[in-house]
Amino acid sequence: MRASDRAYDVLRADIIEWRLAPGTVLAEVEQSARLGVSRTPLREALSRLTAEGLTAPQSGRGVVVTDVSLEKMTGLFDVRLALDCTAAALAAQRRTPTGFDQLAARFEAADTLISSGDRGQHQYYALVAELDAAIDAAASNPYLLQAQRQLRTQLTRVRRLARDNTARLLASATEHAQIARSIALGNPDLAVASTKVHLHNSLQHLLAAKNDVDQSTIREEANHG
User: Fold this and answer.
1) Does the structure show a pLDDT above 80 at 80?
2) Facing residues of 64 across strands?
3) What are the structural domain ranges in the chain?
4) Which CATH superfamily, name and number, covers 70-218?
């Protein structure tokens, strides 16, 4: 693996998993030493992260991890609504029923995973990724897939806000099961409706979670002020 690819993979994972918080300055000297790469491949990695919207150049500070604002989250879901509903409708028209029936059954049994701690929740997110991949394959539209790639990078990062909320994850599993069943039935209208319900509920939860994080940050700053 090239040094720039290795640096990119580590930094991307650190940002998405919130080990590098919004506003963190990614100083070249410090990050080069931490990642064991020279500054040239590090710059290549940072350029890729900036193209994905995970970092941004900031005058006088170098490159920083971008914020996840309420406005950004709403904007992401505006675009996600259009793309995911289109993908679900196409998948319902072109699907292989058995595969989506099996995915629906796995989501219906996902409460054990979700309730079993970090490892189980990690497996649950892997199941969500399987459904995304199945919808992509069934929709069979490379232009749609290309439009979704950068969006999904941002959404993976945002999704971590719901990671410790078991109740929301259980509800999400039910919603994903309904999407999979709708596609298996070959019903585009039902697939779109199920997708809209899931995205609406997800956005409302994430906005509330982000607000809680912001309020907690304000209180911590006030206590240390």
Assistant:
1) yes
2) 25, 56
3) 3-65, 70-218
4) GntR ligand-binding domain-like (1.20.120.530)
pLDDT tens digits along 13-39: 999 888 998 999 999 999 999 999 999
The residue among 176 and 167 whose pLDDT is bigger is 176
Alpha-carbon distance of 72 to 151, in angstroms, equals 11
- pLDDT for position 30: 93
DSSP secondary structure, the chain, as one string? --HHHHHHHHHHHHHHTTSS-TT-B--HHHHHHHHT--HHHHHHHHHHHHHTTSEEEETTTEEEEPP--HHHHHHHHHHHHHHHHHHHHHHHHH--HHHHHHHHHHHHTTHHHHTT-HHHHHHHHHHHHHHHHHHHHHH--HHHHHHHHHHHHHHHHHHGGGTT-HHHHHHHHHHHHHHHHHHHTT-HHHHHHHHHHHHHHHHHHHHHHHHHHHHHHHHHHHHT-
| Dihedral, CA of residue 18, residue 197, residue 122 and residue 130, to nearest 10 | -120
Which CATH class name applies to 3-65? mainly alpha
**pLDDT at residue 73 in the model:** 85
Which of 52-56, 57-61, 65-69, 193-197 has the least mean pLDDT?
57-61
- Give the DSSP per-residue string, 188-202: HHHHHHHHHHHHHHH
Q: Which amino acid is at 161?
A: L
pTM comes to 0.80
